[in-house]
Amino acid sequence: MNPPTQLGRYRIVRVLGRGAMGEVYEGLDPRLDRSVAIKVISTASDADPDLLASYSARFIREAQAVARLNHPHIVALYDFGEENGVAYMVMELVRGEELAAYFDMTQDFQLDFTLEDAERMTCELLDALGYAHRHGVIHRDVKPANIMLSHDLRVKLTDFGVAHMAALNAAVLDADGADMVGTPSFMAPEQITGQAVGPQADIFAVGIVLYQFLTNERPFRGAGMFAVQQKILHEHPVPPTLLNPLLGPAFDRIVLRALAKRPEERYPSAEAFRDDLLRALDGDTPTQPSWRPDTVTPRPPTVRPAPVDADATRIAPPAPAPAPAAADDDVDATRFASMTRP
């Protein structure tokens, strides 16, 4: 299907990406002579009505969430409309790459972020989330694919399609019910089990991103979505200093607190997380690399993930609660059982 040449007053320049129910274009606003990103969804599709309703609800939710927010590290919303069966959202065009693309480069050891880079970008992400949380918006899908980096490596948080917004459009928010909403490999334990989600779920996801910045690995890995989720629920990650000897012990404390199983054991706010991270670098050499392959402790080869994409955003029934823990089970199982108790 050929893209439209115009939506409203916006001229379509080229396709930037395609999804299951829509596309993203680069466009031009002739009135302001400004390049924009235009995200569209077809409301006249012959797709399954329930699927279309779900995508449409997410699309409206994203527009409402971003419209609440005006922050230098959150992609800006300029306009929203519908024309000839196509709903469209006009947003700030970020010229750069997703953070996921930079992390993928590490397979060939091409990543050259310094520890200062990692700290600054994580703090920018936490600034954006702290602002969103203060305005009643919980992102619920923080992951490298939803973090844009401009050419000067400045963060822009994107994709609020599954965001929770306090006291806004309750009918849409309640449609998720107790479903598992987000990206399985970046979900907090309470997301996996379909419990109430607060700002600490976003903090958990930032902990995963920071871990990858510092070690070039994810803290929870497995052969497929279920295996990853079981590790999130039951296992503690390897401390970052065991994978990257260049790090100081403060980074272990920070990351493991962000990745605590219980929400109340994580940072109370994105700002508290950011401030602790800034203190960890105080007195360190800011230009030392955060990752070098020749300084990392070798590890056995890992099993490749199954074809199921654990990084795709999902809305699905929550994971079933585990059987009652035996008396000699580890501390994670005990905490999980108490966390899921009604």
Please explain how this structure is put together.
By secondary structure, the chain is of the alpha+beta class. The chain folds into 2 domains: 8-92, Phosphorylase Kinase, domain 1 (2-Layer Sandwich), CATH 3.30.200; 96-339, Transferase(Phosphotransferase) domain 1 (Transferase(Phosphotransferase), domain 1), CATH 1.10.510. 34% of the residues lie in helices and 18% in strands. It contains 11 helices and 13 strands. Strands 1-2-3-4-6-5 form a 6-stranded antiparallel beta sheet, covered by helices on one side. A 3-stranded antiparallel beta sheet has the order 7-9-10. A hairpin with a 4-residue loop joins strand 9 and strand 10. Helix 6 runs antiparallel to helix 9 and helix 9 (249-258) packs antiparallel against helix 10. The longest helix has 20 residues, at 115-134. It is globular, with a radius of gyration of 21 Å. The model is unreliable at 168-178, 283-308 and 320-342 (pLDDT under 50). Residues 305-316 have a biased composition (Low complexity). Keywords: ATP-binding, Kinase, Nucleotide-binding, Serine/threonine-protein kinase, Transferase. GO terms for molecular function: protein serine/threonine kinase activity. It holds the Pfam family Pkinase. Residues 10-278 form the Protein kinase domain.
